[in-house]
Amino acid sequence: MTPQLAEIEQLFQTILTEADTEDTEVLMHLLQGIRDKQTGIHRRYINAALHMTGSFYPDHSIVRIPITPVIHNTIKLPHGGILATIADAAMGGLASRAVEEGKNVVTTNLNINYIATTTNKELVAKGYFINKGRSMLVMECVIEDEIGKKLATATATFFVIKRRQ
What we know:
By secondary structure, this protein is an alpha+beta fold. It is 36% helix and 35% strand. The protein has two domains: 1-46; 52-162, Roll (Thiol Ester Dehydrase, Chain A). A six-stranded antiparallel sheet has the order 1-2-4-5-6-3, with helices on one face. It is globular and about 55 Å long.
C-alpha cells in the first residue's frame, strides 16, 4: 500500500468513527459521485460530486442537481454559488453544443439575480439562447426547484475558442 493510500484509509476510518447521520449521507453522496466518474457516468468531477444531469436540445437545455447537504450553505439552503454553477452548466453546455466542430466556449461573463430559496428536493436550470454569434454567444437561464418555484435568473456571455486536445 502506498503512503497516500494508507493516509486515505486512516482518514476514512477516522471520518467513519466520528460520523453523524449527515456526515454519512454526504460521504455516500461524494463516494457515489467518484464511482460514477470512474464508471463513465460523468466526465467531470464537479458533475459527479454534484450528481448533475443534463438534457440538451437545439434551442434549450435542462440541468438538474439534487438538493442535499453537499450543496447547503450555513442556513441549510442551496448555496448561491451552486445556483451560479448550475446556471453556468446549463448555458455553457448548450452553447458548447451550438458551435462548429473543433470549437468550444468559455464563460466571459455571468450575472445572476437571486429571487427565492427552497427546501425542496432538486435544482433545475433551463438555459436558452439570446444571441448566437460566430465568436460570442449570449445566453439566459432560469433556475427553479422541481415544483417550478423560481429561485434565480442568470445571463452569461460565452466566447468561442479552438477546442483543446
